[in-house]
């Protein structure tokens, strides 16, 4: 395993993290007696395999259903000083409720402290305000830190880049969990901002949200050769020293195996990545055209600036991936989540478009005349059964 300094936390963190949202029994809290023995056995085997390969960073959240409860049966049996344990609690207007929720997490984990505590999902300006206000969540986290129940504090986010950068700029957090990978690099300014303040940088879900890379299209497999899409994406991320760790959402012990192949290539990234990156870029231009590939994002409105809260940048991005790389399954999964995931994945699908209503908000786009038709085409290509966010009922 390779390790990197996790910013000002001063932790030596493995370049892969054992994420805790796929091996748990349920997304809802249940008593331990309801957890099937085979499920618990698998979770414990996954944790032991993680430690065997040098991944000692275990990351979970209060919103991950039975994850904390089940981890609480195995973590206390392991050498505490060798573990880096992270949990996350959502932002709350009621700081007392935030504290109570964290105390529940600590009790379920059966630990005296966590190394890393995150605000789970600073996705909106209002979330940041709730954290920063006098007597808010941040003050609670700082008191927990002073009491020794939390070593370092950070935040996770699925929000827009400007909200992430604004949160980083407060200089109140030691690290950030955010999305950034080959197919979605818009948060690079946030990573740069975090590095300037010596914050740790944790990449969320690079193999799932990064493209369902464990079930890639044949075209993507060919374009990434001789690496698998998972290894290519891992190497792309880790070739940037500003990135410290990538989440592996392991559901079973063998899920680490493909990711571990990345380690053999880390010292040769400058050699192996350029031809793959060139093939991917050429493949996108071949199917979408150079002008579109280079300028499609220019002048697009945000969700809040668009009639019906249509998420134009996301819809066009998903349509691009489906066409350029045959990533139809991934694009459908994300597209049909629109309208169902609140601030976690905001905006609406392009079910019914009135081209005239979009004229004003597209005035700064060089493709204003084409985009309404492209949006309709994207809906026809990607529309499928409505998808709900994991953990929602």
TrEMBL record:
<dbReference type="InterPro" id="IPR020471">
    <property type="entry name" value="AKR"/>
</dbReference>
<dbReference type="Pfam" id="PF00248">
    <property type="entry name" value="Aldo_ket_red"/>
</dbReference>
<protein>
    <submittedName>
        <fullName>Aldo/keto reductase</fullName>
    </submittedName>
</protein>
<dbReference type="InterPro" id="IPR036812">
    <property type="entry name" value="NAD(P)_OxRdtase_dom_sf"/>
</dbReference>
<feature type="domain" description="NADP-dependent oxidoreductase">
    <location>
        <begin position="19"/>
        <end position="210"/>
    </location>
</feature>
<dbReference type="InterPro" id="IPR023210">
    <property type="entry name" value="NADP_OxRdtase_dom"/>
</dbReference>
<dbReference type="GO" id="GO:0016491">
    <property type="term" value="F:oxidoreductase activity"/>
</dbReference>
<dbReference type="InterPro" id="IPR053135">
    <property type="entry name" value="AKR2_Oxidoreductase"/>
</dbReference>
């Amino acid at each position: 395993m390779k390790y990197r300094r996790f910013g000002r936390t001063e932790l030596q963190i493995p370049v892969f993290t054992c994420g805790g949202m796929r091996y748990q029994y349920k997304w809802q809290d249940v008593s331990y007696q309801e957890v099937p023995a085979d499920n618990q056995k698998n979770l414990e085997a996954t944790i032991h395999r993680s430690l065997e390969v040098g991944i000692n960073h275990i990351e979970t959240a209060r919103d991950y259903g039975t994850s904390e409860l089940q981890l609480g049966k195995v973590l206390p049996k392991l050498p505490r000083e060798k573990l880096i344990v992270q949990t996350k609690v959502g932002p709350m207007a009621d700081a007392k409720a935030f504290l109570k929720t964290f105390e529940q997490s600590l009790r379920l984990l059966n630990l005296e402290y966590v190394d890393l505590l995150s605000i789970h999902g600073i996705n909106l300006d209002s979330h940041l305000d709730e954290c920063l206000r006098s007597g808010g969540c941040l003050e609670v986290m700082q008191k927990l830190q002073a009491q020794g129940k939390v070593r370092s504090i950070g935040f996770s986010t699925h929000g827009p880049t400007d909200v992430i950068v604004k949160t980083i700029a407060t200089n109140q957090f030691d690290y950030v969990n955010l999305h950034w990978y080959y197919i979605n690099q818009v948060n690079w300014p946030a990573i740069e901002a975090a590095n300037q303040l010596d914050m740790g940088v944790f990449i969320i879900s690079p193999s799932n949200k990064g493209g369902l890379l464990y079930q890639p299209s044949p075209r993507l497999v060919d374009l990434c050769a001789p690496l698998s899409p998972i290894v290519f994406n891992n190497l792309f991320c880790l070739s940037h020293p500003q990135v410290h760790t990538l989440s592996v959402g392991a559901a079973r012990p063998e899920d680490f195996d493909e990711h571990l192949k990345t380690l053999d290539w880390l010292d040769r990234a400058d050699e192996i990545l350029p031809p793959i990156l060139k093939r991917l870029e050429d493949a996108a231009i071949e199917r979408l055209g150079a002008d579109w590939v280079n300028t499609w994002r220019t002048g697009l409105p945000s969700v809040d600036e668009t009639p019906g809260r249509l998420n134009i940048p996301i819809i066009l991005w998903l349509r691009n991936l489906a066409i350029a790389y045959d990533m139809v399954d991934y694009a459908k999964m994300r597209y049909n989540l629109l309208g169902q995931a609140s601030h976690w994945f905001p905006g609406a699908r392009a079910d019914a478009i009135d081209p005239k209503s979009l004229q004003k908000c597209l005035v700064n786009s060089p493709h204003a005349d084409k985009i309404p038709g492209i949006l309709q085409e994207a809906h026809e290509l990607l529309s499928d059964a409505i998808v709900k966010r994991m953990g929602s009922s």
